[in-house]
Target: Protoporphyrinogen IX oxidase
Amino acid sequence: MPWIKILHIATLLCWCGSLLYLPALLLGSVKPRGASSFHVPAPVILRFLFTHVATPFALLAIMSGTLLFIVGQLTGGWLVLKLAAVTGMVFCHVLCGGLIVRLEQERLRGMIPASALVAVVAASLMLAVLVLVLSKPFD
Model:
């Protein structure tokens, strides 16, 4: 069981990091920049990060968390709240994907507030998960 916890924590850290980084990249991509010899179109980098980094880590974190829940026979009121917060994080992940598609289609209206909102909500949900897991208030 310790290896499942290690896998869960490691993949969760990577997913949370990418879930914070994606809105930051979106915010940076909306603002026009000067020409650079190292310029790579932002949507290409964003799509790569979303599909090849964030999504696999999200899936691994959710699968390892589910396995941890089943093997460890975890129960408690805190777990329901934690799963609700994780569901919110998944929703933020999906919203990042939608914002990337909007950026690729060059529909930039409202991108800055939407990206900032996703970042704030995702960070708040991550903090809620951390507090719930460490304190287990309704155990």
In short: The longest helix spans residues 42-71. The mean pLDDT is 89.
